Amino acid sequence: MPSAFRRCTLQAVLLACLCMAMSPWRANASIIEKLRDDSDLSQFYSLLEQNIIANSTLTLRPCTVFVPTNAAFQRHHGPTHVLYHITTTPMTKDELIKIIPSDMGGNPSLYITKNRNGDIYVNNARIIPSLTVEMTNSLGMRQVMHIIDEVLVPLTALPTAKIEFTNLDAYQFLKQADLLDIGENRLRSYRSQVTLMRRDNLYQSPGGHTFLIPVDEGFKQTTRSSLVDNKVIDGHVIPNNVIFTAAAQIEVPQTTAAFEDNLKVTASFFKQKDGKMYVKSNTIVGDEKHPTGVVLAEIVKANIPVRNGVVHLIHRPLMIIDSTVTQFLQVGVRL
């Protein structure tokens, strides 16, 4: 009887070992194996296979990988930069810090936001918490994989640009905007005012900030450009707070750099029923040049990461009150 019991026990152990060996999600499976065996992550795995540096990192080094789902790729247009989804420090959800250098050339930053609901975002992509896994590779290197709902998009130069730009700050972004991949948007009018008012240092400030930059279309009314003084420029920056639209607190006023004793301006994010995102400035305390009131501007290109935060391009300058919010919404056109 004891001999039969031992045989049954041995068979059970062998069967359990066989099942573990056959399982693609076994404890010692590598990230590459998990990607290969998960059909919902096949598009990222296909790109990873073609990237020698990414393959080397996953084989030889500790790392964290942010992996978009196939559904995220269906919504994505344009190239995918695999190395912008990798950092060479392994971090679980609890270990994620606010600013993380990516493994892409120049190490452009990834920004982590943790909101009050417990959601965690990397740039504008939400981490799906139940799908995060941690493991070690064949060399014993610790690695973490987070699944995200959006492809991460770094700031890059236009294909026609002869110079490659990496990890620009907000001021360098303003200076080189004509050579950057930001669509048809031009920033020459606002850039001229920033230079004229000597507010370059505001856009060069280290750390993490949110920069709201009006495009040239918003200066078709010629008087607007002359009204963009140093205080108006300050009202387009939310200091020490990196806000991507998906993680933004809607209708929550944020203190801008134009918040002092005699002038107090806040900015908040606003979402219409049609899904369009807007930013709203509110001059709570004004002066002769800066009247109190609210200005609403549509975000025409959102979530552009720079070395010292994030840039949102808006269709008109804030703080310059030449129409009411009600008129803007009723007409439904860009002023």
UniProtKB/TrEMBL annotation:
<dbReference type="Pfam" id="PF02469">
    <property type="entry name" value="Fasciclin"/>
</dbReference>
<feature type="domain" description="FAS1">
    <location>
        <begin position="167"/>
        <end position="318"/>
    </location>
</feature>
<dbReference type="GO" id="GO:0030198">
    <property type="term" value="P:extracellular matrix organization"/>
</dbReference>
<dbReference type="GO" id="GO:0007155">
    <property type="term" value="P:cell adhesion"/>
</dbReference>
<dbReference type="GO" id="GO:0005615">
    <property type="term" value="C:extracellular space"/>
</dbReference>
<feature type="signal peptide">
    <location>
        <begin position="1"/>
        <end position="29"/>
    </location>
</feature>
<feature type="domain" description="FAS1">
    <location>
        <begin position="28"/>
        <end position="152"/>
    </location>
</feature>
<dbReference type="InterPro" id="IPR000782">
    <property type="entry name" value="FAS1_domain"/>
</dbReference>
<dbReference type="GO" id="GO:0050839">
    <property type="term" value="F:cell adhesion molecule binding"/>
</dbReference>
<keyword id="KW-0732">Signal</keyword>
<dbReference type="InterPro" id="IPR036378">
    <property type="entry name" value="FAS1_dom_sf"/>
</dbReference>
<dbReference type="InterPro" id="IPR050904">
    <property type="entry name" value="Adhesion/Biosynth-related"/>
</dbReference>
<dbReference type="GO" id="GO:0031012">
    <property type="term" value="C:extracellular matrix"/>
</dbReference>
<protein>
    <submittedName>
        <fullName>Fasciclin-1</fullName>
    </submittedName>
</protein>
